[in-house]
Amino acid sequence: MFHGLASGPQEPRLSDQEAEPPPRREPILKAPWPITVLLGALIGAFVWQSLLAGPEVYGRFGFVPADLEVGRWTGLVTALFLHGGGVHLVMNAVAALAFGAPVARYLGLGGRGATVFFLFYLACGVVANYAFARIHPGLDAVLVGASGAVFGLIGAATRLLVGRGRLAPVFQRQVMGMSAAWIGVNLLIAVLGFAPGMEGAVVAWEAHVAGFVAGLLLIGPFAWLAGRRD
Predict the structure, then answer these.
(1) Cα dist from 115 to 18, 99, 134, whole Å
(2) pLDDT at residue 76, as a whole number
(3) Which of 23, 92, 162, 188 could form a disulfide with 174 if both were Cys (CB 3.0 to 4.6 A apart)?
């Protein structure tokens, strides 16, 4: 299209320095980098177990409560990176992204904060699996999935959401109300015997509850380790 010359007074032209900068393009997802690393580890482990490891991976790296009786403890950690299927993985990954992001930001995105975040995640998962084993001592069944650790993130995020970025007291009324709701959901799963999208699999709801309580209580000490003093 051609533009004719205006015959009236000319509008002043802005210099490059005075012109407004182009609008900044914001990323669609603003996940803190520790969450990106965590999701990458979960997805990478699932690809490995699906394409390379074979079905025996559950027996080798899953968590069997009976193993504790003979001194095999590694499954408490390794089981957190295995999943029973794609739906199982996606559910945990979405929850980790949603609830882990505020926890990661609160603990800090530097080296110290990120290290504490990963340790907190693993601690919640280990507590969840161990609690399940104490409730079902000697059980010869394989437990897999990051759900216990993810519920730890949910427990921590509950206090942060109520406190609007700071840790609300554990026994604050809203924290207790939200906690009761999360625990109630898991009790409903226990009654139904399955969760939506997980038909055919037994859901370890006890590990979910234990992980949630662990996150609710442990976020305080881990925040102190990360250097938070508020």
Answers:
(1) 44, 18, 28
(2) 97
(3) 162
